[in-house]
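Problem 3 from the worked examples.
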Amino acid sequence: MPRLPFLLLMALSFPVSAQPPAPMELTVSEGFRNPLGYHDALPTFSWKLADERPGARQTAYHITATDGADTVLWDSGKVESDQSVYLPWGGTALKSRNRVEWSVRYWDQDGVESPPSAFAHFEMGLLDNADWQAKWIHPPLLDDAEATLDPVPCFRREFSLEHDVAEARVYVTARGIFELTINGHRVGDDHFAPGWTNYDKKIETLTYDVTDLLQSGPNVIGARVARGWYASGMMNGAWGQVPQLLLQLEVRSPAGAVTTVASDEKWSVSLAGPITYATIYGGEDYDARQELAGWNLIGGDGRSFEPVSVSPIGDTPLLRPKRFRTVRRTEFLPSVSVREVEPGRAIFDLGQNMVGVPEISLPGLADQQITVSVAEMLNPDGSLYRDNYRSARSLAYYLPAEDGGISYAPAFTFFGFRYVEVSGYDPSFPPELSWVRGHVWHTDFPATGTFTSSHETLNQLNQNIRWGLRGNFLEIPTDCPQRNERLGWTGDAQVFAPVALFHYDTHAFWASWLESMRIDQHEDGSVPHVIPAGPRFADWVNSPGWGDAMFIIPWQVYVATGDRRLLAENYDAMKLRFDWYHSRADNHLQTMDRGFGDWLQPVMYHGEDRLVGEDTRWGETTRDFLATCYYGYGARIMANAAAVLERNDEARYFDRVHQDVRAAVTVAYFDAEGKLTLPVETQTGYVLPVAFDLIDSLEMQTKVTNAFVDRLARDGNRLNTGFLGTSMLTTALHVMGRPDLANHLVFSREYPGWMFSIDQGATTIWERWNSYTHADGFGDASMNSFNHYAYGAVGQYLYERFAGIRPDPASPGYRHVVINPVFTDHPLTEASAQLETRYGLVSNTWERDGDDIVMTTRIPPNASGTIVLPFGTEPIVEQGTCEFQTLKSTGTSAAVPAGIYRLRFQVP
């Protein structure tokens, strides 16, 4: 039989009139799938097209939403639109407890209608304080305003249901962190719920389906509530002294009658339970001899319980459903080695610096305390290095009630650690690897992006970045997970947000944290350095590069997700932050006597002669200059955001400000030859104006580039930037047209540098490049975190430049994908990245095949891309259909619709 032409085969495989498959992976708002206890009364709707045909796209859609029964809540009708993400709800605003089931169908590029999708659903939580019948309950000790509470209180409530259970929901929150049971069964698998907010202004609530845990007749609710962030005495202060519980159980009978059991005076509490101490910094103490037998079971021993004290809800703080995923255990890490120090004491190595808790399963002796101590590193003598924990106790104690095997993992604290020392177990047993494993905890967002290459150390760097993210995205984006800090530093977060948005679906995580930022923002636009600010740090504000997270992160989230509504939600706060700068401007420049400078610049050019802060940690780049740069950057972001939101007059205004600041920066900080004129010629002084588009002509940018290249050469072609400059270093070099230097810095194994730290043993990103060195040992213990993600901002360079996947701000959320890898001036022979977007999977893989490069690109349905190759490339298209053209401005490029493309070419 004669062979058919390829295009004819494709036509036979995908007839023009073929019905496209039904939409899939339906989500609401920031990527939620079938959420329970949902927060958004006016949600948006997204779906993916399952059509694998080349060029697959949508031309219309039809959404139907019901209450799960016979009532139609909204029918969009057929809407001519290619939009398949963030479609706004067209019905009336939803109310507490509403259930919505929805389905969508669409019409493809040929006008052919798809089948309807399977139904997705969501159910609202309690949206207003008035929906609560419950009262706050707490131990009577709260009546003493000066009291503190070490034991974790146990609350219980017995009740009887006079009917069968058709459906049951429990709505619950705490001032503190809770663990809930019904009839002895754990409710949910969350940790640290409800989370960390400004408890004076807003507390988040959780909703659980507990239908299967209840029965007709007697039942009992049990709850343990620890101090958590609310009352642990964090560095930024405590909101209260004693944990409190708020709970409302609603049980529906088959006939539709509702029985409500709420936290009130009918509850009882005991402080005599086994957890005698639990705080964030301190750890946890567990006395098994004090276990309350059956306390959370029907008919359990309630002799140690006493009546609770109660207080009303009131109008504040706001009680609102949690708007992102909770902290959960996402992985177990087994021990990879164990060393017996002496009988009854051993050190276990988990092989990876992680965040969570160790679980011990080992032989114990009655009344002999077992101590669990943790560390990120070992001293030269093999003992735990704990100096960098500062005043954080970070210990767990377990007191067995009897001889024999015990199993224990702390419930109400977390540690940053790799090594676990256990002492006090039965010394007649030699230690075994199975005795200790790590519970990895972090906010349970789905993984979305991956990167890999032919270079083992580069792959390790990528893994270190991911582990640093996982370890520090526990409820909020913390700076570090181990010492007496663990705060939501805004500067660290803004430099790292794009990387977080690639590796994990952190869309809702950022939306929630930005809400906390808006809550803590001052009326004049000032933004605290940490969010939540807490009672102590509310007025610690406005360091350049830190408070500016208020306008930087919303834009970054928009570019990565395409969520226009999130941009609108934050726009007023963004503008307020910008206005704070604008009100201080003098001839378009800023004067600033506060802030952290370019924090942790590695090497001082002038010793301590020209520091901008208290000591060398502040670096040598002046705060006036940094403030001016972020003012100009803010103007550019605001111009872009205003244009997206169709605030055209404001967009033009912000653009004029940006142009004015560009001109002022160029004149004020550079001489005619492009050399920096600051008191100290720092690398960051060149990096930020270029990265923020603050050099006012191409001619001057060329001169600035040459001056920066000279500065680098005098620095031995080593980076010398702090937190702010490092995040923009490789970006600036690309703008300057020097990717060769950017590549050199990434692959450098000299101090300071990413691979230098890996060569010293790093399995996460460190706070300092030399937090530890084989030659000199440990750095300054007062600020020496071995899990500090800020320098992981370089991860953006890995997937955008080496693998070549970039979003397009003009068509955000990867609706239009730019594929533009760097093939030369580095040791890679292959690189690959993939990203699960709201439209589907984007991927790009290239590898060397002799003198050729073979590259395979995937663009998801209803999206498009531009493939950019080096100038003068003549690719052979082995799969897909695309036409390349060569332009001086962009190189050799092709615009492509959805599909898979395989190219073979040689780089000129």
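Problem 4, a separate protein:
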Amino acid sequence: MTSLSAYRAQWFGNVRGDLLAGLVVALALIPEAIAFSIIAGVDPQVGLYASFSIAVLIAFVGGRPGMISAATAATAVLMVTLVRDHGLQYLLAATVLAGLLQIAAGLLKLGSVMRFVSRSVMTGFVNALAILIFMAQIPELVGVPNLTYVMVAAGLAIIYLFPYLTKAIPSPLVALVVLTAVTIFFGFDLRTVGDMGELPSTLPIFLIPDIPLNLDTLLIILPYSAAVAVVGLLESLMTAQIVDDLTDTPSDRHQECIGQGIANTATGFIGGMAGCAMIGQSIINVKSGGRGRLSTFAAGVFLLFMILVLGDLVSRIPMAALVAIMIMVSIGTFSWSSIVNLKDHPRSSSIVMIATVVTVVFTHNLAYGVIVGVLLSGIFFAWKIAQLFRVSSSLSADGRHRTYVVEGQLFFASAEDFMAAFDFKEAAEKVTIDVSRAHIWDISSVAALDMAVLKFRRDGAEVEIVGMNAASETIVDRLAIHDKPGALDKLMAH
């Protein structure tokens, strides 16, 4: 738990730097919040309200000062089908439920589960996210005037070339302003943000999603809410780790889970969509001098102020400018080095990464990709550990005593090799199984040990198990049956 003095320092320890960084982030958030709304298939105000609400709330209740949270592509792409099939009100309800699930995850200390997500899964996650972001732009590039392609190309040129002149102003913002000015000045007939829906002109108000409160509704929104909760926490905890490394300061993962949940729950009640931490904007914030909670709070407040004051101009932004920005986000999100590293990294790591990407692209659900990646990582890890297992044996000079030395991890994946190492046809009078260099992990390994002991005893051998460590002894004492009456009959029955 953060002390009051430490919490106060997180707010006011870097006031000037945090305010300036918050302004820069707010300028960059405007086009992205609008673009993410369009990805989800909702009015721009939904993403803008969400970005304002999440940023302001997470500043108070989050576990990682200086990290920017708002509406994101990662959560937007998960809502596309829900909005298309059921409408905005169901998205708001799903946002509230996702927040509650995240709060529960934080209270249950599930932030620690992040350690089981391998680097390969993380890489596959961001690569798949980049592909989904790019795919979401395709509808804006099909069946449009040729001028649209020219404007998108011009926007990309500004985004990538302007930083060579100066980095004081975010190049996506420059592209947005220039393309909007050119469109207005020359009167180009292009799709604009105003064509996509109404922009906010007032402060957000409290509302309850207009949906039937029954089991059918819950079954509709629960899969989307669960996916948003998982993906949102995954990206937030990944981003928190990046900010930790950039600032050499720690974060509270469990508090961040709770904070994300509170922010999303509240956002659903003011007409906003779910969001999470933003890797790109968080890096911009840190590199612009933002370190404390004030930078995140300022970004949200400045964002809402500019939208309310400059709403008329924002509605005239050409969609081509937003497409260019989202293509830039896609290119910047994709880990291009992972392609080069395919030939150098272990084959299992590459398979995990590719499987994660393929699953996400085919299902359009980042949560499914993460689940597949984590499962494959676990399978490959178990297989590798099983390869480090071996059993050696020696026979006494008189040929009456056989000693087996077990080395490595004895669990379900190595139990078969364990059994295959014994010669049950040998007529030894005594058998010693030395497990001083091994560890017994699960019921499969205990069952294998039972089987080995009972088979030797069935043939008249005296069996002794030696060297068992305390943890192994605990599970064997609780689960083993080789010293119980009728043990062999019971074991063979299964």
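Solution to problem 4. Strands lie at 69-71, 275-277, 390-395, 401-410, 430-440, 462-466. The first helix runs from residue 4 to 12.
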